[in-house]
Write a structure and sequence with these properties.
Order of helices and strands: EEEHH
Mean pLDDT: 84
Distance between the termini: 46 Å
Number of strands: 3
Low-confidence stretches: none
Radius of gyration: 16 Å
Structural class: alpha+beta
Strand content: 5-15%
Bound molecules: zinc ion
Number of helices: 2
Length: about 80
Amino acid sequence: MDSGKKYEFRKLKNSSDKILICPKCFELLFRDDFEHFSCCPYCDSPIEISDEMEDYLLKPIVDNWISNQNQSFPGTFHPES
Ligand SMILES: [Zn+2]
């Protein structure tokens, strides 16, 4: 069984975030560029939503959620024994 295409990411400076490199035209794609279209805006190459891609797309939501949780409930994610 083919596990699908492997996408390459590049890490952003000064950030824990990363950016997708289009496997076809090698343009750098920000999350917003393709999350609503599921394809590369430069060459129309379809972006396959793999587990890896899902993690990538959900990362800002998860990060945001965690920081909101920490604001609402300080210490929740830093349990002290
Ligand atoms: Zn492309």
